[in-house]
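Write out this protein's structure.
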Amino acid sequence: MKNSSSEPSAPADLETKAARALAQGPGLEKLAELIDNFNRTGKELETRYAKLEEKLRRMEGELQEKNRQIASIDEERRSTLSFLNHLLDTMPTGLLVMGRDGKIESFNQAAARMLGPDMAKGNGAVEAAAQLIKKRVFESAGPAEAGVKEITYRRDSAPTRRLSFSWSTLNRSGLGNKGALILVTDVTEARKLQEKIERDRRLAAIGEMSARIAHEIRNPLGSLTLFLSIIEAECKDMERCQKPLKYLASSVENMDRLITELLDFSKPMEPEIETVKLVEAVSDCLAMVARAAEIKNVKIEATSDENLEVKADSILLKRALLNLILNALDIVGKDGKIKILARKTGFDKVAISVIDNGPGMSAEVKKDIFEPFYTTRQQGTGLGLSIVRRIAEAHEGSVRVHSLPGAGAAFSLIIPR
């Protein structure tokens, strides 16, 4: 019975036909024809099989090449991602992504440095930073489309910093799921520089005006001093005139000192740098105040390494140190104590500190203590400490004060070695 659903293959069919032909006893021609057809069909199959193998090998090569390309692209993507992460973590500007729910989703190392080093540990510091931004930057109203705001921020016992926040909203996939991309910049030093520029501008104007006034006053003041000495000589036997004359002489002396300070304040600071031994500079200043300290019974102690030297203008350095010592003498009153300490600080700086046991000062006074004409003393001019600061800055240094009410004060002149 013939199965119509399973046809024999071509070679098998030829073999069957050949067998039947032999069984039926056909001629040799018929057999040769069948064998030739068989051979021809076999060769065609071999050729097709060879082409199929070649095509398979070519496809395998193409597949391997595609895999290599994919691997290369994936490696390049990972390298780019690693580089971008490195850039984000090393950039000086802080970067945060805040979700719509007000939670910080990601941040870089600069943001952690400014807002809290513990943010990387995730122990509540991230939530604290988010609350800070929501309350003080967004003011609990959520971010506007974009904005900029500066705040003053102090973390634990760290110094107070000025931080600038700038942000823009993120619309993810057009779904209205808005978060915010926030940039944080520490502008503390920039604001200090702006304040210094503004202060220098004011000081330049004050200095120019002061110099003009001082020159106008000094000439008649010289005549007043001359006539006062003549009157003192004429009235030396008149006891009732002595007290008013002494008062006048003291007033003229104070005015002359004020004019001298005004002129010093108005002069440009151009240090003539030389090597100065601090022990000698301190000794010279102590010699100049020895009489005043003796009258007030103030004890002054000085400590300095004999070999400690600085590169500075000797005259300006002594003037600054003398102003600090005189300021301390006025503050401590009778039976006070003053200590002068010169020491190395850091790798390349020297600090000369004048420490007193006076009444100290409040934070409000410390804030303005170096401003021109600011003084808490009735007889003060308010220029001595301003001149000290100008001398320090002319040497690329600084002057600092540490004090608490009732705990004395320490003024430190810091200059490069």
